[in-house]
Amino acid sequence: MSLSFSRAQHTCSTTRKLWQFPWGYPEAALFVASIILVGFMLQLTVGHFDIAILHYPANLIALAILAGLIALGTRFQNSLFMHWIAGIPVAITLTVALLLFGLYMELTPQLPRMPTQTPDLVSRLGFRMITASWPFVFLYTMTLIALGITTLKRLLRFSRRDITFLCNHLGLWVLLASAGFGAADMMRVVMHVGAGETEWRVFNQNEEALELPVAITLKKFTLEEYPPNLTIIDRQAPPAPQPDSKPQPKNKQEFFQIDPKRPKGRIGDWAITLDEYLHTAVRVGGEYRASPMPESTPAAKITVQNLLTGEIKTGWVSAGGNTPDLFFSDLSLDERYSFAMTQPEPRRYASDITIIPKEGESFDAILEVNKPVSVGDWMIYQYGYETALGKLSHWSEMELVYDPWLLPAKIGMFLMAAGSLLLAWNGAGRRRTNQ
Amino acid sequence: MSLSWNEFPCIALPAMLCWLSAGLLACRRPRSARSVYVVDALTITGIALSAVFIAAFWNALSRPPLRTMGETRLWYALFMILAGYITYRRWNYPWLLLLSAIVATVFTAINVLKPEIHSVALMPALQSFLFIPHVIIYIIAYAFFGVATLAAGVLFFRRRSGNGNDNGLLTFVDDLVHVGFGFLALGLLLGAVWAKEAWGHYWSWDPKETLAFITGAAYLVYIHLRHQGRKDNFVLWTLLVAFLLLLLCWFGTALLPRSSLHLYS
């Protein structure tokens, strides 16, 4: 994006006519608007852009054609047209168009896939699935072309002064290309494995089994919990499906986080003192006793004092085993309100598994959230468990993600990170010296 | 040492007082050598109070205080006043210290009035070494963009009142925006790496991701307009729009129609 060219164009813009070189913003706006218009026409005639058509090796061929176009464009970089394509007006207009598409996507509900019933005009124009609409795909491709020519031009007359520019622009191009073309080869499936079982199939929406190149044995599922919260509930409030209406005060629900290090707290007019806390307890008579049994539940013995009346009460409150929304409480405040305990939130959950690839050695791994395991181009993630049963869940769900384009995407990100660090370090300083 | 929201007002009120009086004193003319020292002492005391609270609060929660809006406001106030103070010392813009002191005070005051008490629980999805850098780098970027917007506003009103074109101030805004964008892109990239670890893909057009893209794109428009040599008020308006989109990205995710994986509180 040569500055001298832009300046020339800036001064000429008042005298020249539309489509008279050098082109600027009006031409860029008309050009981008035409791309979008053609996109919409295509959308109405052939429907959504189906990413599956870019499945390997089609995506490699398409990428090669795109690279060829960029190389060709760079070959004629001295033409006024190529100056314009690689210039700031086109870059800004494309950015603004993508920004507006993003904003629309943000402000309206988007569907994960096309609805099966006859779609309305908004759907047919692609507005319910922006990222799979032809106008968006055209804008994305045009961005790759314009960004590619700009970057290649600078790359060919490499200068150390351009290092920030190159890191940012080349990095973005590599990332956009890998994310866009790689999306066709990406596969995400969820595998459901029972404790002690081995699974290598996943089922799609039509209940068709798909065999994967990797099998997984679930040896054990474990779940650790945080201490739960205490709250005051209205026993007369409607039960589930609105359990949230129960904790009080209704408009600003208050909770007391159980933490033996901080045993004192307050909810509404009641001061709370935590006398005893057992994370795994069973009810024996009117009391709770520590027990590691699977059916155990958190229980807390608390003393509460009404700050207005001075009334003092002591009793046990528990999370009521593994049945959500069922509280056990010996601490009724009156006929309507009583203290209760929320279900404990998970601190950590993990699957102890053996991974058996079709080719190669099998190995053991502990799978947990934020700690996926790689097998070739596949990554395996801890996905879900039977939440109603919590730590008693006898199955675990794992998500398997196949993305052979991850490496180039990471290279793009690495380049961009280097460019960002240089920007943060230099500010706009480098540009000033250029001027 | 452990501190909670209960003790927050006792630290927040003196901190706000320090920042505001430092900002006002910095803008007062004529400036004496002694008042410069007092401004430094007041600002640093305010910053230290705020930093000590964050550290002690972190200790009390046994997790970084970065999960709720209220908790991110604590950091924003700290980084805002830090960025204001650094730019005041580096480029000698006393009004910037005052403006950032006002913004930091507003954010702190919201926390005093509406502390959003939450549990100490940190759900497994947030338990990652990327959690702290991802959020803090974003808040640093927001602070730089905040200061840039304030400076652009001052430039805009100076132009309207006929105080001439302050090209030095515009270049200063450029610096802030470039530095802010560097941090914004880093925050985004760390988020992408983390998303790959936690959710299976580095980009899913999650509402927060989409808004982050929109915010980044808006700042790119400003940066490219300036690279083209544009200096008019239009570029200042671009900056304001970009900052409004940033605020939408920060606070608006919960208000929008699509549910986000980024909602944790």
Using DSSP, what is the number of strands of chain A? Answer: 17
- List low-pLDDT spans of chain A: 1-13, 240-245, 430-435
Average pLDDT of chain A, rounded to a whole number, is: 86
Provide the low-confidence segments of chain B as ranges.
none
Report the total helices of chain A. Answer: 10
Say how many strands of chain B there are: 0
Structural class estimated from helices and strands of chain A:
alpha+beta
SSE series of chain B: HHHHHHHH
Biggest pleated sheet of chain B = none
Instruction: Say what oligomer this is.
Output: heterodimer
Output the keywords.
heterodimer; A: 435 residues; alpha+beta; 3 domains; six-stranded antiparallel β-sheet; four-stranded antiparallel β-sheet; 10 helices; elongated; disordered N terminus; disordered C terminus; B: 265 residues; mainly alpha; 2 domains; 8 helices; 74% helix
Give a verbal description of the structure.
The complex is a heterodimer of chains A (435) and B (265). Chain A is built from 10 helices and 17 strands. The longest helix of chain A is centred in the middle third of the chain and has 23 residues, at 134-156. Chain A has helices at 3-12, 25-46, 58-75, 80-85, 88-107, 121-124, 134-156, 163-182, 406-426, 429-434, and strands spanning 187-194, 198-203, 209-225, 229-234, 256-257, 264-267, 270-284, 287-290, 297-306, 312-318, 328-329, 337-341, 346-357, 363-368, 373-375, 378-385, 395-402. In chain A, β13 and β14 (363-368) form a beta hairpin. Chain A is of the alpha+beta class and 435 residues long. In chain A, strands 6, 7, 8, 9, 10 and 11 form a 6-stranded antiparallel beta sheet that branches. Chain A has a 4-stranded antiparallel beta sheet with strand order 1-17-16-15, with no helix packed on it. A 4-stranded antiparallel beta sheet of chain A has the order 2-3-13-14, with no helix packed on it. Chain A starts with a helix and ends with a helix. Chain A is elongated and about 90 Å long. Helices cover 34% and strands 28% of the residues of chain A. Chain A has 3 domains: 19-185 and 409-434, no CATH class; 187-224 and 347-402, no CATH class; 227-344, no CATH class. With 265 residues, chain B is mainly α. Chain B folds into 2 domains: 1-68 and 81-106, no CATH class; 122-265, no CATH class. In chain B, 74% of the residues lie in helices and 0% in strands. Chain B is built from 8 helices and no strands. Chain B has helices at 8-27, 33-61, 69-91, 94-113, 131-160, 167-199, 207-227, 233-251. In chain B, α1 (8-27) runs antiparallel to α2, α5 runs antiparallel to α6 (167-199) and α5 (131-160) runs antiparallel to α8. The longest helix of chain B has 33 residues, at 167-199. The two termini of chain B are 25 Å apart. In chain B, 49% of the residues are buried. The model of chain B has no long low-confidence stretch (mean pLDDT 89). The chains are: A alpha+beta (435), B mainly alpha (265). At the A-B interface, α1, α5, β13, α9 and α10 of A face α6 and α7 of B.
